[in-house]
Amino acid sequence: MTKLTSPSTSSKTRNPRALQSTFVSVLAVILLSCSIASADPPAIQHAGTYTGREPVTDWLMSEKLDGIRGYWTGKELVTRKGYRIHAPGWFTKHFPPFALDGELWRRRNDFAFVQRTVLDEVPSENWKEITYNIFEVPEAAGDFLARLEKAAAWFKAHPAPHVRTIEQTQCRGPNHLDAFLKKIELLGGEGVIVKNPALPFHAGRSPHMLKVKNFSDMEGTVIAHTPGKGKFEGMMGSITLRLENGIEFKLGTGFTIADRKHPPPVGAVVTFKYQGFTQKGIPRFASFMRVRGD
Question: For residues 268 and 223, is the Cβ–Cβ distance under 8 A?
Fold first, then answer.
């Protein structure tokens, strides 16, 4: 612990350069805290989880893209938590003056590349490989298809080759949904989103927009590391996660050797997949997927 001394204690504590350096460091922390606190999350819609009991016939289904969610405010691109995405000027040059919600994506099983590119404060040439895939037009009037049509009409008049509207398929029933999910998974996709197209937009968790997967995923905050043993000696063995509801548990599977040598730091938010819960509320068969940087 750093020991604070009064100016009269010793001449060594009155080094102007040291005091100036300390002041600058403290100021930087204050400014960073203010910047973080100033983020204003957009009013977005969150998918619920499909249970198999919902009446999905005639709903619309599409592939759930595994990228970084990008919300266009009408002026700038931000993350789901409201932090600015430093996209190059050419990327958003032809974006409309109204809000869009979509996924910044390159291809399946490529989340690390997208996250590294999209969350970099200095945009790189890698942005040329990123596409913006629109799945909602939050402030538009009308039903789901009418809202999507507003975006499609805009980009027809203002072409941007890296922007597209996610293709929607009408669901003929649960069996059709299962077959569609199987097709997406065989292609290496993460899952499916199915949505009631008849409703106007509303923000928050929605029982009318559902994610469909053969596993569930969740996020937790790293609060501790446990050293590895045996073949993992000298590396990380497991991490302890705290969930939003306060439950804590150890996660030790799904990591590569590189992950174990350089584990997610304390305070990082990680995504893991699981299959149900124990009686104590701990995720069953939990397996690490990735660190969330957005």
Answer: no
